[in-house]
Design brief:
Layout (H helix, E strand, L loop, with lengths): L3 H12 L4 H12 L2 E2 H8 L3 H13 L3 E6 L8 E6 L6 E6 L3 E7 L5 E8 L4 H18 L7 E6 L2 E2 L6 E4 L4 E4 L1 H5 L6 E6 H16 L8 E6 L3 E7 L2 E3 L33 H4 L3 H7 L13 H9 L3 H25 L3 E5 L6 H14 L9 E4 L4 H16 L3
Parallel strand pairs: 4-7, 7-11, 12-15, 15-16
Antiparallel strand pairs: 1-3, 2-3, 4-5, 5-6, 8-9, 9-10, 12-13, 13-14
Helix pairs in contact: 2-7, 3-4, 7-13, 9-11, 10-11, 11-12
Length: 398
């Protein structure tokens, strides 16, 4: 019998091949300004290892080490941070409803951002994206971005250059990398949006943590659909072999046999019951609107619930219950007990948290100690995830 610990070891082997140097650069970016002593403690290495690793980057001017007030007994601390530069990175979050395009620097600030409604046609969407990238490039006197990161609501190919299938957009087999660049001027990396969101949430938690890296957690991203990202040993897991790019598509696991039809062709998929988009049908009682009746948006249902409408409150509680059922299944399948939830569903956290915990508590997962569920970012992980994909790819090459 395969034990959960063995599953985690196998997943960790496939999660990535990041070196201590990769992790060090991510830690500097997330925690800057930060001392070499702090870096060594959080990475679990000698201070001399940190010093030797950063030496060429300080010499080249990529990293700055400066004196800063705040040391013990009035002494100044020597802190590291990424130096200001003309380098920048573009992120594109191709969403089911809206697409965001933004740019960032190595210090993590979003320096340019715009959005538009996602067209039904993939060609139209990519054309607008190219126009937005061209505008960003023009504003920087023609200087091209170092890397472009693209997050997509579906399965990606093994090379992280294209989209295989996005059920909620009905898009298939798109070579996104070739569509966004000519003559290979800039590398384009395509990532599943839940995996990208997990990378963003990992950086947020590295920044806010006082010790160590964010080792293992499951990211459940809920909006129009549901995606799951896995972070194992501080690395995202993308699957292996033919499964690379498919890992995390738990939104299309069946939780209600013979249930509601899903855009993927299956019935009873998790996202038909526990996504932000499912709230409207639950609120309406799974019936079409009558006459001039309008179907409420998710934020409107949350607002009604906050104003005391029982119908809205029960709708959100039911979504929380379905979400908890699916989360328990994911925890049992993966063996990682910490879960972070991001996406629009977080706006309803006060109504869904209790039902989520109750549903997990009824499962076998609830009979053991150590599991946890927490709220992540409602919107920032969308464009933030795409930008994280671009920056992370760059850091891995240094």
């Amino acid at each position: 019998m395969v034990r959960p610990a063995e599953i985690q070891i196998d997943l960790a082997r496939s999660a990535g091949t990041a070196t201590k140097g990769d992790q060090l650069l991510r830690l500097i970016r997330a925690s800057q300004p930060v001392t070499r002593t702090e870096l060594a403690e959080r990475l679990g290495v000698d201070k001399s290892t940190v010093t030797e690793t950063i030496k060429p980057l300080v010499s080249s001017g990529m990293l700055l080490e400066e004196a800063m007030n705040g040391g013990s007994q009035g002494r100044k601390r020597r802190v590291l941070s990424f130096a200001p530069s003309n380098d920048y990175f573009v992120g594109i979050n191709l969403g089911v409803r809206h697409t965001q395009v933004g740019a960032t620097s190595l210090n993590g600030d979003i320096v340019d951002e715009s959005d538009f409604e996602t067209p039904k046609s993939a060609d139209s969407a990519l054309r607008i994206v190219r126009e937005r990238i061209a505008a960003i490039t023009s504003s920087r006197n023609g200087r091209l971005p170092n890397v472009i990161g693209v997050s997509v609501p579906g399965m990606t190919d093994a090379n992280r250059t294209g989209l295989l299938f996005a059920p909620n957009l009905s898009w298939r087999n798109l070579d996104i990398a070739s569509s966004l660049t000519t003559n290979n001027e800039t590398k384009v990396v395509v990532e599943n949006d839940a995996t990208a969101a997990a990378m963003f949430e990992a950086r947020v938690r590295i920044r806010d943590s006082e010790t160590g890296l964010m080792s293992n957690f499951i990211l459940v991203r809920s909006g129009t659909g549901i995606g799951v990202g896995l972070v194992i040993g501080s690395e995202v897991y993308r699957g292996s072999g033919v499964g690379r790019g498919v890992a995390g598509e738990f939104g299309h696991m069946t939780i209600v046999a013979g249930g509601k039809p899903c855009v993927c062709g299956n019935r009873g998929c998790w996202e038909k019951y526990a996504s932000a988009a499912s709230a409207a049908s639950l609120y309406m009682g799974d019936r079409p609107p009558k006459g001039n009746e309008t179907v409420p948006k998710f934020v409107e249902i949350v607002a009604k619930a906050e104003n005391g409408e029982v119908r809205s409150q029960r709708t959100l509680e039911k979504i929380g219950e379905y979400l908890g059922i699916g989360i328990a299944n994911v925890i049992m399948g993966i063996g990682i007990p910490r879960v972070v939830i991001s996406g629009r569903l977080v706006y309803a956290w006060s109504f869904i948290e209790g039902p989520i915990r109750e549903a997990i508590g009824r499962s076998i997962v609830g009979k053991i100690d150590g599991w946890s569920v927490e709220a992540g970012e409602p919107v920032g992980s969308a464009i933030g995830g795409a930008l994280e994909v671009a920056v992370d790819e760059y850091l891995s090459t240094l």
